[in-house]
Amino acid sequence: MHEDFDISIDGLSKMEGHASLDVKVRNGKVESVKLRISESKRFYTQAIRGKQFQTVPQLVSRICGTCSIAHLTCCTEAVEKALGVQPSEQTVLLRKLMTYGMMIRDHAMHLYLFCLPDILGKDSVLDFDERQHELVHQAFDVKKVGNDLSKLIGGRAIHPFYSQIGSFSHLPDKEETKKVIDELKKVRSHVFELIRIFYDCPFSFRRKTTFVALTTEDFSFLEGVINSTQKIIIPEENYWEHLHRVIIPYSEATGFEFEGKEFMVGALARMNLNREKLHKETRNDIAKYIRTFPSDNVYHNNLAQAIEIMHCIDHSIEILESTEFKKEPKVDVRIKECKGVGVIEAPRGTLYYAINLDKEGKILYGNLVIPTAQNQIKMENDIRNLVAKNLDKDKEFIQYEIEKLIRAYDPCMTCATHFLKVNWI
Amino acid sequence: MKLRVGLFSFTSDEGCSMIFLELMNTHFSGWEKLIDLRYSKLLRSKNDLKDLDVALVEGAISTFKEEKKLKEIRENTKKLVAIGSCAVNGSPSNQRNFFSDDTKNEIRFVLDNFGHRDKVSPLNEIVKVDDYVPGCPMEEEKFLEVLDKYLKEFKVV
Predict the structure, then answer these.
(1) Which of A122, A321, A335, B70 has the greatest count of CB atoms below 10 A from its CB?
(2) Quick one: B28 exposed, middle or buried, by C-beta within 10 A (0-12, 13-18, 19+)?
(3) Inside any domain, residue A186
(4) Which chain A residues contact residue B63 at CB under 8 A?
């Protein structure tokens, strides 16, 4: 229908950070799709150089407001692996809980506040009508539980300060723990409702791709091996060798390929590769919904996120009810020249940190790979195919479909532009 | 009549926007009657910058485009509040201001390519700021105090 047209979206909305998009169609063909991540660079890779290792996890936490706990935890892991520090069983449990708090809060924000308006045909959660109002209250209840769980463990939901190299400086208060357990139990039915909404959602965009995720024994996002639908198992410390950095000249972020191909990380990848490790209560209660996976529908990324909230609730309740947290002896850290890699699953996918320290414990080199950068090439190609499939529709429709598709990915532009590698001149 | 509020984000990790969303967990029911959040890219795709009472601005100013936008916000709002450390004093988003010459040279081409200013500035180096909410992320209590002050000043409550 339309031979030549351009779509320009300056400032995509309802996502983390700033990005704009330019699509050019000429002679009935999509000539170019440019997703410009326009979030200003803050040069964290440069800024951490020369800093003492103890201070760096707190600093990189500031790369991203919404998933600060992921950056903090992954960087802490890289430093611990470098120095040979083995966190205690209790510390590992506390980290899992703090991560679960983040996942609940972050996924709930994305699903209720950013995606749900698309399903209910509204521009914003602020415009929901009376009938939809109950969902708004549920949204804030679920988000609050995540917030409270992270606060209980880390002291704060954004940039928590109890987390340290090898330990936590503070243990959860008993009374507060009881309150959080009650809250977790109370919102479970809300999350069930959320899962049903995303299961019933008719949006579909199917395509074949490689999925990559760190698969963990208890679906706790922290320790495991990197798995993929290409059936390659990679130890955490070797992940970088399988990635290829792709320079995107018009974007303030770089993209990545896995084994030379576009790929996707995130909740959909985790569900496709590791769903049998979800908590048993979750598996029992929502088996029907979990059977949706494996899936190659991008919109199922959102159903996967909703299921992950349920898992985080169930596993958190189990840990909090069965663990007596005790004061532990201080962790002994011996400073030496060393290198370490940390890999965890952040809300939006696999997060990689490599840290090199000098003999005084100062950062010599830091490198990190964030989920949105890994998804960027796939995201652009999906947009290109989406536009090509809909050339007979009007521009407004295409633009809205693009925004919806990008939101399904749950990109984080803030994360995508923290760093810089100088090799694209 | 509701308080006409805009929420804006510049060079930062958006942690203060996250705190704003977290405060909504417990304050949404109250704010709904008092606040008209007319501009927030985080929550709306259709936004209106005109005639704001209060602009809540997060982040430091790193690019010329941001500088222009900040001035535009100032022209369209009666009060402008800097929320969070980046907006209040530039830190930690202004780390590049303190880089050695070598490191500055290393990042020079990005700065030139994407229209970055020579230095990253807190808001008050560019426009008049009426109130400050410090902290990284911003202090919740102080934010609520400032918001309450403007609800009274604009006779919403």
Answers:
(1) B70
(2) middle
(3) yes
(4) 40
Please indicate whether, in this complex, the C-beta atoms of B96 and A66 are within 8 angstroms of each other. Answer: no
Chain pair A-B, CB pairs under 8 angstroms: 130
Cβ pair A140:B11 closer than 8 A: no
Question: Considering the domain boundaries, does residue A215 fall inside one?
Answer: yes
CATH code assigned at A137: 1.10.645.10
Asked if residue A7 belongs to a domain, the reply is no
Residue A104 contacts B where some CB pair is shorter than 8 Å = no
Return the closest-CA partner of residue A24 out of A36, A8, A13, A37. Answer: A8
pLDDT tens across A287-313, in order? 999 999 999 999 999 999 999 999 999
State mean pLDDT over A112-127.
Answer: 93
Which residues of chain B make contact with A40, given a CB cutoff of 8 A?
10-11, 62-63, 66, 93, 114, 116
CA–CA dist B19, B85 (Å, integer): 13
Q: What is the ipTM of this complex?
A: 0.94
The boundaries of the domain holding residue A152 are 44-416
Residues paired with A291 in a beta bridge = none
Residue B81, both tokens: 């509040």
Instruction: Tell me how many domains chain A contains.
Output: 1
Name residues whose C-beta falls within 8 Å of residue A83's C-beta, 6 or more positions apart in sequence: A53, A165, A333, A334, A335, A336, A338, A340, A357
Structural domains in chain B, CATH included, are 3-153 (3.40.50.700)
In a domain, A5, yes or no: no
**pTM, two decimal places:** 0.95
